[in-house]
Each structure stands twice: as C-alpha cells, then as structure tokens.
Design a protein that fits this description.
Layout: H1 3-26, H2 30-45, H3 49-66, H4 71-94, H5 98-114, H6 118-141, H7 145-158, H8 163-176, H9 179-195, H10 199-222, H11 226-239, H12 244-256, H13 260-279
Length: 280
Amino acid sequence: MSLKNNMTRVLLSIPVLVLFTMNALAQATINDGIAAFNKGLEERQAENYSEALNLFGEALSITDELGEEGDELRMKIETLLPGVHYQIGMALYNEKKMDEAINKFKETIDIANAYADIDVVNKASKALSQLYYYQGSVNYKQKMFSEALDYFNKSIDLQPENVKAYYMIAAVHKGLGDDENVLTAAKKSAEMAKAGNDNKYYQGSLKLGRDYFLKKGKAAKDAKKYDDAMRLLNNSLEFDGENSTTYFLLVQINSSLKNWDKTIAAAEKGLEQEKDEVCG
C-alpha cells in the first residue's frame, strides 16, 4: 500500500474520532447527576431551598438523559421535591410575602399530588387554608365583604374543620346585613364549634346570632314593623332561648297587637328567665 493511501485513511478517520470525543465530553454521566443531587442535599440542609431545588432539577435532567441508568437517582429526587417546594412556601409565608406564598403552596399541592406525597399535600393544604383565612380577615377589617367571603370559603374547602372560618363567614353576612345567611352561617359555626369541642367559638357563634337578631328585632319594633320584629326576635331565641330581654320585647309587640294570650305567655317566660339570671 502506498504512503499516499495510508495518509488518506488517517485523515478520513480524524473527524470521526473528534466527533466521538466531543459527544463523550458533552454527555453527562450518572456521577454528574449524583454530584448535583448531593449538592442539592447540602443546600437543603442549609435551608437554601431555592438553590436546592435548582440542583435537584439539574440532577433530574441528567437522569432523563441517562434513561434506565438514572432511574434509582430519579426516584430519590422525586421523593424530596414536594417537601422542598413546601419549604419554599413556608419561607415566603414567614417573610410575609402572602401572595407569593399562596401561589407556591398551590403549586406544591399539585406537585405533591403528582408524586403521591399525601403528607405534603396535607401540610400544604393546611398552610394554604390558613393563608386564605388571613387574607379573608384582612379584607373583612377593610369591609371588603365579598372578597373576604371568597377567601373564607376557600379556607374551608381546604380545611373543612376550620371553625374560625365558619365564624367569620357568619360575621361577614352580619356586616352585609343578610338576615337569612346570618341565621344559616351562625348555626353552622355553632354546630362545627360544638363538634370540635371549641367552647370559645361555640359561645361566640351563639352570641353573634342572638345579638344580631335582637338588635334588628328591637329596631323593627320601634319602627312598628311588628311582623318583622317578631320574626327577628324568634330568630334570636334560636341562639339563646333564655334571654329575658327578648321575651319582654315580644310582650310589648303582642300587647300592641292585642294578642293577649301570647302577651301573657311571653311575660311569664321573661319573668322566669329574669329570675334565673338573677339567681345565676
């Protein structure tokens, strides 16, 4: 074979060798994935959760390139991802970045559901429920009742046993002057508080309903709107059937309407309750 032919073969093989070498350098190895994962663990331990998430994402991308070889590492990463997202949400919450925290917890719930991490789903749902309650309370204080109602309902959707949210829904309807919904919501609040052995909110719910309808009933009586007054005062009695003031208002209404039997019955009941209140 001539020297010319030998040189030609060598020259033709060079591009193939260079291409093979470049591909080998460009392709990440399982060790690269493990290194990124370990760095992510270090950042997670140091509570640098955003950086940990970036590193876990880098390691996850490498496992995707590796296929079956990266399956074991991929499973380890996926086990940790929901928790890291949750910790980022908690950090935003602690920094009072409420809107960002809400968005992060919503994202966390989606990710945790995707990876079937029920523990993180529950923790993120509880945290999000509390954030919705907080935002609802802010809106309530600003008399933004419709917005507050939306947040309190979202809070209950995520945490059905949230007694405080039920109470605040009743308070919102009170602020709106919505008799029908005050009656329904205050009863529901009292029911949930009783079921949860929460005496504070149980008594608070009863007082809210009683006082709301008592005040409106007295105003209706003073305006001589007797039918409305009796309806409102009877609603008040649904929350406190032992309030002497309510019965004496009913005495005045029935007396004005010349309903003597009802006047006597209300007077007897009022005197009985007044006696109990004094003795108590």
